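Re: your question from the hallway

Yes, I did run it. Sequences:
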Amino acid sequence: MHNIFVSPDSRFLPIMRIVNDALHNDVVFWTLTQDFSEVIKNVDLKSECVASLVDTPTRGNATRMAATIVANISKAAQRNDIYNVAKNAGASIAVSRWLNDNLDTFMYNSVPNIAAIILSLNKIKPELIIVHNDVDTVMKPICQWGRVHNIPVLHIPHAIYLPNAGRGPVMSDVHDFAVATHVAAGGPFQASWYKERYDLLKLGAQIRITGLPQYDRLANAHPDRERSCKLLSLDTRKPIVVYFPSWSQDTNLMGCHNGLEEAFAAFLETTKRLPECQFIFSAHPNDQNKELIKRRMEQAKATGRPILFCPGHLDVMLSCADAVISYGNSNVLLEAALVRTPRLMEIGDPAIAADIIALGPDPDEIEAALKDSLSKPTPSYNNLINKYLVQNGGTATRKIVDWILSLLPKE
Amino acid sequence: MDDTNFSDVNQLHLMLIVDKLPSFFGDAAIIDGVNLIECLAYDIIQYINHAFLNEYLNGEANNA
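Structure:
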């Protein structure tokens, strides 16, 4: 029986199904959450949750490891050693104080869980680890464990990190610290992005341009504007503008200048100036904070314009959009280019391709750009697509499956 | 707010986690070859970024 670890990501389900068929149902897909394990079982695959192996002795062992670490920190904190080291390195008082006073509590909450996962991986002994990111606090230890134990770790990125004014120079962002042993890149840009970082980290990794599975569905898409308008109760005769607001990630200080709010305010002002247009607001999938959306809806209501709030239905929105405006360089621009949305705009970043209109958070600019561009022919977007994606006819999933099968041990 | 200095601060915060903090943990922070401090960087940096921003914004408010 093959054992493969997969991180909770629904993009992996088609991959898992094909891999399962190729392995004649002789594979168990291990994952982190009970919920995702149930999802895998619901598509008739065998799945187990890593947590099922965290028995009392494992939990006790993990807690003892955490206690040792926390004790080391607490001793240093009592002497103010952490404060002094951070302060002498140039950190602010608040940061130095946080590290000295709170790190032990933070670690006591986090470390036992990570330690328990690592101890469980030793029991599973997966032949392959597949992840959607190799940076967050749970994925990273799993990836590190795989690398240390010579188990291939295949990173199938959930997104392409596009050039972004907020990201800062190379190796200034926590996302730069890649650790997977294999990367399935979405296109030439992403392959170069990872190569540069692995070279600086002096880590070996195989990077292969396969395309990303989330774009397969759009490779041969035939958007039906009329149908999409009907689904969203929009008028087919009037232009439709969709605004994508991005989200506040907090892992990088750059961009902490209230940009999300400024751009949203500019978008709302623009809606008042263009009564002939219909507007949609799409909440970011990682920022489905109900309070925030409620606040955004109240701000939108104050404009007196009907603005449709759409937390999902991305493909429907893209099918009917005449213009897409994103806050910063978002992956939604790539998806919109694949379905040939007539006009692509972004607020706050330098344009990533000539066919994208870069704007400031300025209603005058946005209004002028929309008025000027909506009647113009749709660009080909070929430069954009060829740089960031691959035109592979929607075969990324198949290419990744072939790679996965080649990474598994031979019988 | 000016982003220019934030790049330096962000690099400093990462350097603290990756280079300075490990000395406080010793070998205990390496479990089965996995460096826990590096793994927790994603969460720790968010906490200290918030601490920094609160201090920065309070300073701006006091100077206003």
